[in-house]
Amino acid sequence: MAVNDECKLKFLELKAKRNYRFIVFKIEESIQQVMVEKVGTPESTYEEFTSSLPDNECRYAVFDFDFITDENCQKSKIFFIAWAPDTSRVRSKMLYASSKDRFKRELDGIQVELQATDPSEMSLDIVKGRAL
Fold first, then answer.
1. What are the distances in angstroms from CA 129 to CA 10, 67, 68, 104, 118?
2. pLDDT tens digits for 109-128?
3. pTM above 0.90, yes or no
4. Which DSSP string do the residues of the chain spell out, in sequence order?
């Protein structure tokens, strides 16, 4: 599975320059390549991010999550989310599962990984809990 250079460039911009709040990636099966599907502006909310994931198709995504620690410090963590809804095709789930580690290695700087098969598995409370 090839990774389009745009994926790495956009991720670096999210990590270093904070140009984006999130990036959604899609495997283009016809050319066997991971591509950028959508990016969210720095002002985007978590709800906008979750609504950009399709209900019945797999995706990879990264989300730059800002939070305040118990010590009142402003921090951020970059989440990698493997989205594989139960309603997606079996072949698609297998393709995303088998390509995930290779793709994740291309994105240097991911701090937390989440696997989700429905929206409740990546609720804001779960993300906050994993960040702290």
1. 26, 11, 12, 22, 18
2. 999 999 999 999 999 999 99
3. yes
4. -EE-HHHHHHHHIIIII---SEEEEEEETTTTEEEEEEEE-TT--HHHHHHTS-SSS-EEEEEEEEEE-TT--EEEEEEEEEE--TTS-HHHHHHHHHHHHHHHHHSTT--EEEEESSGGGG-HHHHHHHH-
